Structures are given as structure tokens and as C-alpha cells.
Amino acid sequence: MSQHDHGAQPVILPPQEAWGVIRSLLNPVTYLKFAKEHPIMALILIAGFIVTVNRFFIGGLAGTTNLDNNNPWGIWISFDLLCGVALAAGGYTTTAAALIFNIKGFRTAVKPALLTAFLGYAFVVYALLYDVGQPWRLPYPVFWSPGTSSVLFEVGLCVMLYVTVLMIEWLPNFTDWVGMQKISHIIHKCTIPLTVMGIVLSTMHQSSLGMLYLIAPGKMHPLWYTYQLPLQFFVSSMVAGMSMVIFEGTISHKYMHARMSPEYNRDHDGVMFMFAKACSIILLGYFFMKLVPIAGDNKWGYIFHGKYGLLWLIEMFGFVLLPCFL
Question: How many domains does the chain have?
């Protein structure tokens, strides 16, 4: 089965017209017109440009973030890395369901899920350029001085490889558009190996992100700290990724359904329901996964004591158990 069966059918333009569109995208005049038509977006980009200049050329990391050697991680890097990677997990879950387990209902969502994952991981990598102190040294831990005993080394290596895999999986959308069907045909032959590689890499770095706090037990409350953190993070990433596919798929279907294939529009509601049903089942399993270490280590007393116990109850019943039945 080729990727042409997934979602909208590719729009194939004559090569001259396709490359004309690409040249217009590389022309600064195009973006000046866009800024004039969308002033709010232009203001956001200008503000981002000012912050970028301050980050890299004036104030540096400390002047921009107010971090120091005693507090090297801000809440935003946790959001960028931990939340961003989890929200982009829809790619490996959808491709695994559609191509490995051959669940036909998910096939039409493969392309949107891959695009979501590719953009999500690309944004995570881009955000890291702002988060780390010396972004030009990002390749060093991989190629020059590998820290093989570090959890972050494994995360960085797997994310780098997985972004490459996602780019290759998404590439047929571009090559079909510009009329390079031979390249698309070659990539289609590698669909299953690429899917398997993506699943393995995702499993490794998603669980490793959960492992980050295993080496810092003092940073977490006992209600959340457990040796099962890697597995819990991996399972929660499945829910986060599929939820993001539902969110983006619903918005794109509402505003761009005219550009999608009749098959995708026909199956959209059913596919979104299948994603929601899968999320409910996984969330229910995640709820019991959270209870097992509480019972095993006899931490029941923490639940009904203090504000952290209240926060745990709100998380478990308000954001885990309640969505299972909505």
C-alpha cells in the first residue's frame, strides 16, 4: 500500500508551475504582502525577531531568560522538550496502527499525522537553539564527544534520527507536487522499514524523557516519582500525540476540506472517533498504571495530605479518568 492511499490525493502540478510557486515562496516581496494582509501575525514575527536578536547577539541566554548556574532549566525548556515531543507523538502511533497492525480505519490519517509529527519535532529542534547556552555546539555530543552514559545523549541522538525519518516519510508529498514521481516510488518501497525505524526511535526517546527525573528523585514529589516513569511517559505520549492529531485534523477538516479527497472527508468523523476511542482506552490503562506504584510503595497517605495530594487528585480524576468517559 502506498502513501497515496493515506488522506488527500496529491496535487501534481506541471514542473514549471510547481517551481514557480517555490520561487514565489523564496521571494521577500511575498512575505511583505503577507505582512500587510495579516498585521497581527506581522507584529508577532517582529516581536520574535527582537527577542532573537537579544538572545543571540546582546543579552545572551542569561539576559533573556534570567537563568543562572544554580537554575539552568526554565519551565519553557520543559514545555518545549517534554510537552513538545509528546504532542508530536501522533506520527509513530498512527503509522504503527495503520501500517504495522493494519488497522484500516487509521490509514486516511497517516499523512496528517506524519505532517503533525514532522512539524512538531522540527519546532522542538528549532526551540532548542534558544534554550541551550551554545546552540552551535549541538552536534558535538553526537559526533565529537558522545556522552553515551547520558540520558539526554540518547534523547538527542534518537530525535535527530527520527526527524530525518519523518522528513523522508513526508518527502513524497513534495516530490509528487513537483512531478518527481520516481523519487516518490523509491520512498514508497521503503515505507515499512521507515515505519519500524520511526517506532523504535520514538519508543526510545519518549521513554528516555521520562527517565530524566529518575536521576533526580529530590526534584519530584513521591506521588509522581516512581521507577515506572519511563513507561508512564511513553504511554502518556501516545495519548498526547493522538489528541493533537484529533485537534489539528478537526481544524483542517473544517477550514480546508475543499482541498481534501472525497474519501478523507467521508471518513473523517469515523477516523476521529477511532482516535478518541483509542485515547480513552489508553488513558484508562494509564490511570491504573499510576495507581500501581502508589499501592506498591504504600503512598496512600500522600494523596489526602497537603496541596500536592490535591493536585494529584485533580490530575488523575480531572485530566485522566474524566476524559475516558466524555
Answer: 1
Residue 314, number of CB atoms within 10 A of its CB = 11
Q: Residues 254, 44, 53, CA angle at the centre, nearest 5°?
A: 140
Residue 105: domain span: 3-37+73-324
- Which one-letter amino acid corresponds to residue 313? L
Quote the pTM value. Answer: 0.82
Q: Among 297, 296, 286, which Cα is nearest to 320's? A: 286
pLDDT digits (tens, 9 = 90+) for 269-306: 888 999 999 999 999 999 999 999 999 989 999 998 88
SS3 of 325, please?
coil
> Is residue 45 situated within a structural domain?
no
Specify whether the CB–CB gap between 52 and 129 falls below 8 A. Answer: no
**pLDDT tens digits for range 142-152:** 778 777 777 77
Query: What CATH number has the domain bearing residue 212?
Result: 1.20.1630
The answer to whether residue 289 sits within a structural domain is yes
44 in a domain, yes or no?
no
CB neighbour list of residue 226: distance below 8 Å, 6 or more residues apart: 232, 293, 297
In a domain, 309, yes or no: yes
Contact 209, 153 (CB under 8 A): no
d(CA 194, CA 154): 19
Where helices occur in 54-190 by DSSP H, the ranges are 60-65, 75-78, 84-87, 90-95, 110-131, 140-143, 151-177, 181-189
Long-range contacts of 74-80 (CB under 8 A, 24+ apart): 76/131, 77/131, 80/124, 80/127, 80/128, 80/131
